[in-house]
Amino acid sequence: MSRPSIVWFRDDLRLADNPALRAALDRGEPVIGLYVLDEDGPGIRPLGGAARWWLHHSLASLGERLRERGGTLVLRRGPADRIVSETVTDAAAGAVFWNRRYGGPEREVDAGLKAALRAGGIEVSSFAASLLFEPWTVRTGAGTPFSVFTPFWRACLALPGPRAPLAEPREVGGPHRAPASDSLDDWELLPTRPDWAKGLRETWEPGEPAARRRLREFLQEDLANYDRARDEPAAGATSLLSPRLRWGELSPHTVWHETVEAGAGGRFLSELGWREFAWHVLFHHPDLASRNLRPEFDAFPWPHLKPTHLAAWQRGRTGLALVDAGMKELWHTGYMHNRVRMVAASFLVKNLLIDWRRGEEWFWDTLVDADGANNPFNWQWVAGSGADAAPYFRIFNPQLQAKKFDPDGHYVREWAPEHLGEHPPDPLVDLGETRKAALAAYERVKSASRT
């Protein structure tokens, strides 16, 4: 009697370079693709609105591609440990394969499920697919995790290089009768009342085929200009691959090898390294989104929150052109240029003196590429509380940043044209005075660390 293999898809919504899928096909039995929408498991963080929009369309694409190859994608909702076990029973499956995750709650779910399934006689294997270098394989000379990027990346590059990507399967034979599946539409991942996703639809096409096209376009048209223009938000020199990597529509191994084959990409490859570093830090500090990595920052004297200031920042009404342009780009497209992200985050934390966690929560809800590592890691970097953090006294001046990186105002003109009129809005706060207040607060942190 045939006992199908289940491939549990998570943040790896692709057919190419998918080791779990390849292992299932090599087993020689019918293959069932499974995606579990788990928003109830212990410690699992529910997706933000923009992420839910992307997930809907990426799952639709994955399901269609599996069907074209004779396979099937089963959708089920609930705590992953229970749902996967139930699906194994319903399908009379003999094996379950997945690609590894690195967040703390996710690892606990996976470890518990692996033990339970094996105890029941089910073959279970997990694979490295989402990172070039798994977090436990990169250690300092003393055997400890890294906390500074440059030596971390140097240690990564001293290891055997990233493996070659696996080919996309031509056929994915499914079972004669698949287990029951939820309807994707019934999950209500798309916004309806109101439908705020018009800008996302205009900007993005989720799914593996579109991801592959974007990678080719970047390597052929933009990579040569990347090092020079990557910090200019109007230059169009960035890869726009971050949501593709976040959802696993592309593997980092594919991006790495195709970039190397293109004959360039030193700085771009180091950005892949920064992504690796974020996951390295999260693996060793699972509470990265809620707790200062540097404990001395627990003494930071955050003032009482002014909701009007937070709302002005969220809606791009701070009176600072570059910040407002970035926040409006984010609201419309679910994305923001990285240089502008740093400026907008610095303004929230170091000029408005609003806890970095409030900004991280907003980005989690509005970014299509927000993930459990990079989002909190980069917020802590800007705040000065994280790994390899920007010094707290490094405060991005939004006006000087605009002059340097958007000197002709092309980016501001596109997203916040009111700043280029005869009567631009007044800044929400005085940059000089708030900078002094931030530095005074930082002195409190330094004093607390010495006592």
TrEMBL record:
<comment type="similarity">
    <text>Belongs to the DNA photolyase family.</text>
</comment>
<keyword id="KW-0285">Flavoprotein</keyword>
<dbReference type="InterPro" id="IPR036155">
    <property type="entry name" value="Crypto/Photolyase_N_sf"/>
</dbReference>
<protein>
    <submittedName>
        <fullName>Deoxyribodipyrimidine photo-lyase</fullName>
    </submittedName>
</protein>
<dbReference type="InterPro" id="IPR005101">
    <property type="entry name" value="Cryptochr/Photolyase_FAD-bd"/>
</dbReference>
<dbReference type="InterPro" id="IPR002081">
    <property type="entry name" value="Cryptochrome/DNA_photolyase_1"/>
</dbReference>
<dbReference type="Pfam" id="PF03441">
    <property type="entry name" value="FAD_binding_7"/>
</dbReference>
<dbReference type="InterPro" id="IPR014729">
    <property type="entry name" value="Rossmann-like_a/b/a_fold"/>
</dbReference>
<keyword id="KW-0157">Chromophore</keyword>
<dbReference type="InterPro" id="IPR036134">
    <property type="entry name" value="Crypto/Photolyase_FAD-like_sf"/>
</dbReference>
<feature type="domain" description="Photolyase/cryptochrome alpha/beta">
    <location>
        <begin position="3"/>
        <end position="132"/>
    </location>
</feature>
<dbReference type="InterPro" id="IPR006050">
    <property type="entry name" value="DNA_photolyase_N"/>
</dbReference>
<dbReference type="Pfam" id="PF00875">
    <property type="entry name" value="DNA_photolyase"/>
</dbReference>
<keyword id="KW-0274">FAD</keyword>
<dbReference type="InterPro" id="IPR018394">
    <property type="entry name" value="DNA_photolyase_1_CS_C"/>
</dbReference>
